[in-house]
Amino acid sequence: xxxxxxxxxxxxxxxxxxxxxxxxxxxxxxxxxxxxxxxxxxxxxxxxxxxxxxxxxxxxxxxxxxxxxxxxxxxxxxxxxxxxxxxxxxxxxxxxxxxxxxxxxxxxxxxxxxxxxxxxxxxxxxxxxxxxxxxxxxxxxxxxxxxxxxxxxxxxxxxxxxxxxxxxxxxxxxxxxxxxxxxxxxxxxxxxxxxxxxxxxxxxxxxxxxxxxxxxxxxxxxxxxxxxxxxxxxxxxxxxxxxxxxxxxxxxxxxxxxxxxxxxxxxxxxxxxxxxxxxxxxxxxxxxxxxxxxxxxxxxxxxxxxxxxxxxxxxxxxxxxxxxxxxxxxxxxxxxxxxxxxxxxxxxxxxxxxxxxxxxxxxxxxxxxxxxxxxxxxxxxxxxxxxxxxxxxxxxxxxxxxxxxxxxxxxxxxxxxxxxxxxxxxxxxxxxxxxxxxxxxxxxxxxxxxxxxxxxxxxxxxxxxxxxxxxxxxxxxxxxxxxxxxxxxxxxxxxxxxxxxxxxxxxxxxxxxxxxxxxxxxxxxxxxxxxxxxxxxxxxxxxxxxxxxxxxxxxxxxxxxxxxxxxxxxxxxxxxxxxxxxxxxxxxxxxxxxxxxxxxxxxxxxxxxxxxxxxxxxxxxxxxxxxxxxxxxxxxxxxxxxxxxxxxxxxxxxxxxxxxxxxxxxxxxxxxxxxxxxxxxxxxxxxxxxxxxx
Length: 694
Fold this sequence. Notes:
alpha/beta, Rossmann fold, 6-stranded antiparallel beta sheet, 27 helices, 21 strands, elongated, ATP-dependent endonuclease
């Protein structure tokens, strides 16, 4: 069996949420204060016998309407559903454990446990009378805390909660709930045999070669271990005798004081004697680190991260001990659960991945049945399977749950694509409050700077910029389409290029087997001759929900990001970076544009080349309806676009725009620092404005 679902009602940030779990590992992700730790605490209220069951006023969800609070006292209900594993045999310890809690008898069977924190019925009339006098919501909660919280009770019901059958503690204790919180002192918790954890582990694994020998019968194992204990006892007796021998003369003087004060009476005399069992000697054992050189160091000399890993290995060993029926009999645990909060707190990225692999091995070896890990580490998120992720996030005051693996439905192609590319960088989108998806590196590097030129900080607004590496938005948008019940309902802006193209039409007399394909063209070449060419450009799709919007360059004048940077800033020479080719030619075109020289003069500046000839021909074409001012901007933009590379140029652009921004920050007046006005292209500005709108 496994915990397949938990329903949380009115507990902390959960108003009424149902969360599905995997049979195996569950990686629960979300930004800070999303409710990850609260989910673990909700599980503990049912399955951890050591957790505090009587709650405080701050454990209630504070978004309960005042009308509801006046109608009846608030209660907290946490319902866990346990479901039969597909590989599980019908008759098993699992079924025996949950037999009294079954809510579905046919296979796969289901059982329910519900923790309820409530005000007993006999106090309801008194409650209503007191709450009716409250003036506002704050006074309601204060009244509950002052007058009624002490009267609240808790129960754990088994089976259908409406039957109110109390779950017996003996069966609940069959669940081994091992919780490692984010802030823990493992050095205090494990490194000496005096500690219960290590003591239990040592006792179980003592003589393990005998205990695990499948060729020996149970009676033979017990006899062999008994002989080993006797042998140890004899050797320990010799140690005690040797110790007494060394104390022969000294104890005469020690015990003489007992005689002097009258401690010896009735013919009795104090003396020293004793024995040492193997269990008593565990306290002398301590974990150490032994190097190849033979040097031994205390385990506390390790880093905190390594010690956390060692602690987890000991904890899993203890869970193996606690679940061994031969060793503990009817006290053995049936269902070991490991709950880890923020493992990244002490582990660098490589060790985070190592931990995940370690946990998965323990799952496959059945040393632990179900694992719950909370994290906001993009390294962990990028390393696990999409189906293992559960995303907790907020929309205003509402807590919502997303399942990245389920959001693709039957679209296996997109799911596999995202699984391949969900690295530590791209997985950041699962944590962000809003997401901007871009085609390439240039947009990714420059987007935050564009926002700064608009006096906006993307970081302060928790907006992540993700480079999808091309026009592959569809794959990623499965995760966020709000019409999908499993998606993460976040605001997503997709910034993509218009990319106009044309295809030469076949004319009479030409070889029809010579098929033509679409090729990139300039905006000013579009629709000049529909007899010779067919044209197309990227359009904004309308197949997504309202939380997803596409932003492209102008339908007539736009082409790509680099093209639009110059179209909106035709005299900003900082955009012509060191790696840009034809710099002198572009600078001259910019100067000519600034001096309002004619289009003809600017076209004569172009170097002789096939591509420049094509640009000139299109801009001189009499069929064009463009104004000269637009043509002049397009000329500089086209020449610039053909002179820049993608990667290095993006880095240099980011540096130049950042340097220009720095001048603005320190300026009292723009003229005094050399700051140059930079205009963010309209489609970029529209995307940022939409993302920042409430």
